[in-house]
């Protein structure tokens, strides 16, 4: 499905990013596993891919840093010759508070850093994609961009801005055969939700039409569709992956 494609997946040392890296490699892609700090975890993802006959390298870079992301792209091109796919997945931390208790200096960093990560990563790969006349840009958003929950105002607002960014990128680069799409997961069973009370997870599952919360592979499978030739006429979209909690 992704034979000979080269994919950069940011924040792919764990969780949804790691699942996406492994799935893409299984489908024939050469994968660049990006990490910010956890080199050991990233190298474990690479080993798993290689042990299963795939190709991957681990590259450290802060997705908000222009020079580091340009170096990552250059290393990817040096290793594999091109970049076909970017999955913008790296998690950006945020302050969990209701608006009433939120200060501006707590609210704005999530929005600024979320958008900087998308902006910098996209800028870094676009010249290569334009040169080759194709590309798939995939951005991990959140169902909280459309369905507010208490305490998530910084996160949800940032992801709403990301959704708008994706549509503008899709419009501007569609004529160059570069597609941009967003995925909106609901609650996903990852390290980021490990401290969520089990009662909350069970309640979310109870109100989800499919009867459970998402696993990382659920998100990875949708990313695979958007990265593959099966989505050649899909751009500017937002695809919920929430088991029916967020119905269009």
Please, could you describe this protein's structure?
The chain has 248 residues and is an alpha/beta fold. It has a single domain (6-241), classed as NAD(P)-binding Rossmann-like Domain (Rossmann fold), CATH 3.40.50.720. Helices cover 45% and strands 15% of the residues. It contains 7 helices and 7 strands, in the order βαβαβαβαβαβααβ. The protein has a 7-stranded parallel beta sheet with strand order 3-2-1-4-5-6-7, with helices on both faces. Strand 5 (135-140), helix 5 and strand 6 (178-185) form a beta-alpha-beta unit. It is globular. The two termini are 28 Å apart. The model has no long low-confidence stretch (mean pLDDT 95).
Q: Total number of β-strand segments?
A: 7
Termini separation comes to 28 Å
Gyration radius from CA atoms, angstroms? 17 Å
Report the uncertain regions: none
* CATH-defined fold name: Rossmann fold
Number of H- or I-type helical stretches:
7
Mean pLDDT, to the nearest integer, reads 95
What is the string of helix and strand elements? EHEHEHEHEHEHHE
- The CATH C-level class name: Alpha Beta
What is the total domain count?
Answer: 1
Query: What structural category characterises the helix and strand content?
Result: alpha/beta
CATH architecture call: 3-Layer(aba) Sandwich
